[in-house]
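Please, is this right?
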Amino acid sequence: FDNTRRNHARQLESIQVTLDAEVKGRSEAIRLKKKLEHDINELEVALDNANRGRADAEKSCKRFQLDLKDMNAAMEDEVRQRDDLREQHALSERRCTMLNGEIEEMRTMLEQAERGRKAAE
């Protein structure tokens, strides 16, 4: 009977050691689970922040693209205006040259008319 009691005591002690190991393992698993859940929450927050930052960057990029498009359109308009003004300037220069030629021609005709009048007197 003592032998059986000792065997049961050893088995009970073995079961207790196994139970203690399982309780310790379970506690460690729960601790690791909580730590992983906390890490997941932090990563989700970081992901949300990164997504917000990306969305802001995309908005800024679109705004810059629109600004660039507007600036290009404005520049094209100014280039067209500059070309039109250059063309008008060239036309004015030709007209001015032509009018100066006509003035010189009229002066010459006036001088001839003055000489003719003086000769007629």
